[in-house]
Amino acid sequence: MVRFLSFFVCIFPISFSLFLARVAGTLFYYLFPGKAKLAYLNLRLALGDKFSLSMRKMIVKELFRNLTQNIVEFLYFPRIDKKYVEKYISVVGEEKIKEVLKREKGLIFLTGHLGNWELLSLVAQVKRYPIVVLAREQKPKRLNALLNQYRTRLGARLIIRGSWMREVLNSLKENKIVGILGDQKSGKGGVLVGLFSRLAWTPAGVFNLASHTGAGVLPVFIIREKGPYHRIEIKEELSLEKNPQEFLRKFHRLLEEYILNYPSQWLWFHRRWKGSPSKKIIILSDGKVGHLNQARALAKIVKQVIEEKSKGLLLEQGMGSTEEIEIEFKHKFARFLINFLGIFARDSCRGCLKCLQWGLRKDSLGKIFSVYGDIIISCGTNLSAVNLFLAKENQAKSIIIMKPGLIPVRRFDLAIIPLHDRPKPRRNVVITPTALNLIDEFTLKEGIEKLQATGYRLQAEKPKIGVLIGGESKYYTLTQRIANTLINELLNASRDLDAQLLITTSRRTSQGVEMVVKERLSNHPHCPLLIIANERNIEGAVWGILGLSDIVVVSEESISMISEALSAKKPVIVFKIERKIQFKTTKYQRFLDNLFRENYLTLVKPEELAEEIKKVYHKSEKISPIEDKKLVYEALRELL
User: Quick one: average pLDDT of 526-538?
Assistant: First the structure.
């Protein structure tokens, strides 16, 4: 069949045959959507938003056309001679070849899958250079013999890749030229070298050969200018470095330059970055600060896992980098429809981003179309489908926090769901007693430093009671009466213990409660720190209060505040406030009941607070540590 196709191609002028090849390439673009999708994926991975969606489509379509032209030109090899080369192929920098060969230590052409790389060896043969061709053995023996005949028809020596090192060494000692493709993923013995946005496993064979033999290394690239016209560019010799990473980084810089200038001529089908320790984390935000902070906390744990698994490797760019994208839907119905369509998302689905294109606002779409992520994180039901669609499009890991609504949990790689949402145990589900948060020893230290920088002066030797006052929510209300009772109890406890009160309200605290708090505690000797969040919110204030406090007091309506207090590993007392709905058991009640039952916190009425603070302060028993992050960490280690 190949002989027949070659005969057919050679009947016509090469320009006409290449025209037919371009038509066939356009057809193949539509016939092989999986290959096209992989090319899109690699383009976005490597170049991010350097090209628009329409430009990426054009590049991939042109890539198919270029490859079919390469195939036709290969079939035309029996007709290629000196006259053909002189007419259609120009060479820039040919004098560098002669300079290196004068040293009589051999020469390595280092190139990549750019343009029609198969032409390079044939042009060298036409110009009578002592070229050695490396080829992979194909399984069909007769086809393998025919292809190798085409490659060596003008006198080149053939070496079959496999156990080829000795023959290559002998060829270099004989002052021959060996052409090596250096842009594919390496197997054993490779090194990590940055290529565009991340590290890539790269074969170090060229460096080893040059070091052992003293052979010169010339980067060589061939570019299709138009139709059968090509330009070969021979760059300056690569000097040997102390290690293969530095040497290969110089080649990668050249390769990046050519790929950027001729993106449709590089082989984007190869999984060049497979196995790379560089991981990009995408955080999807629904605009809710609490959800975003949970997603950020998860991303923080993901980074820790990535760093642990990358110990001993060369760490460079892209190692656990994070990008946040705020998702805005056009309207509520669009949000519902996208979440409904998420039920049908599959790995083979071709329209993942088309579904989003219909329902998302322009700014969100632009970011999603331009970004690549290895790990997609979201928090909240509304973003479950967007997470799944983006993960399928990027062939990435999808991780959600909270229940995914209409979409079955099994569709995600990992789901972190709090116990109060009553999840069913599954292999891909981590059930946590509290909500994920950013609190750890580093954020606590950072919060303390930020508080100290604002000028607050605290007496180090005195006990400190941290107080996080919430406010209005769907199910709870904090009244002025409860606020007055709360302050009475706090002042009683602080006098009896000679303690300092570190107090902050929240954005949800009503003006009436804020007035009570200010009137009674402003400039009070037992309250050196009072922050009214709606008037002057200090960044990291909650972290600082949690870090400084010996005991933490929190209002019952905020799952996030209680979770943060527990993560600070301090005794936590939750005071009850007025419930709007009495007859219904809410997730907030289930949340508190679970934690109280497991002895993570104490739950009291406001009028009982002073006695409970004193009791907890004098208690010698250690509090039960929250294991949320440890559970998530172990699950991520297995997933990644």
Answer: 91
- Alpha carbon distance 105, 571 (integer Å): 74
Q: Decide if 444 contacts 547 (C-beta within 8 A).
A: yes
Q: Is the pLDDT of residue 71 over 60?
A: yes
Q: For residue 400, is it left (φ>0), alpha (ψ between -120 and 50) or beta?
A: beta
Token pair in block for residue 460: 């180090």
Q: Are the beta carbons of 569 and 537 closer than 8 angstroms?
A: no
* The two structure tokens encoding residue 148: 């190798």
CA dihedral 361, 327, 40, 350 (to 10 degrees): -80
Which residue ranges make up each domain of the chain? 2-78, 82-265, 279-432, 441-618
Q: Kindly indicate the confidence band of residue 148, based on its pLDDT and cuts at 50, 70 and 90.
A: confident
Give the 3-state secondary structure of residue 505.
coil
CB 569 within 8 A of CB 439: no
Number of DSSP helices (H) and strands (E) in the chain, helices first: 24, 23
What integer is the mean pLDDT of 369-385?
92
Distance CA 561, CA 193 (A): 44
Asked whether the beta carbons of 454 and 544 are under 8 A apart, the reply is no
Residue type, 124: A
The structural architecture, per CATH, of the domain 279-432 is: 3-Layer(aba) Sandwich (3.40)
Class in CATH terms, 441-618: alpha beta
Q: Look at 369 and 556; give whichever has higher pLDDT.
A: 556
Q: Check for a shared fold between 279-432 and 441-618.
A: yes
Residues sharing a CB contact under 8 Å with residue 29, sequence separation 6 or more, in sequence order? 36, 60, 61, 64, 65
Cβ–Cβ < 8 Å for 428, 414: yes
3-state secondary structure 219-268: EEEEEEEECCEEEEEECCCCCCCCCHHHHHHHHHHHHHHHHHHCHHHECC
Pick from 10, 23, 14, 114: nearest CA to 68? 23
Region 329-334 average pLDDT: 92
Q: What are the structure tokens assigned to 61, written together?
A: 């379509």
Q: The tokens 């043969």 sit on which residue?
A: 125
Cβ–Cβ < 8 Å for 380, 288: yes
Residue with tokens 């954005």: 507
b/e sequence 369-381, b meaning 16+ C-beta within 10 Å = bbbbbbbbbbbbb
Residue-wise pLDDT for 406-432, tens only, equals 899 999 999 999 999 999 999 999 999
Whole-angstrom Cα Rg for the chain: 33
- Report the pLDDT value the prediction gives residue 319, as an integer from 0 to 100: 64
Tokens of 83: 């006259």
Q: What are the CA-CA distances from residue 138 to residues 423, 512, 515 (Å)?
A: 52, 81, 82
- Identity of residue 640: L
Structure tokens given for 278: 């560089």
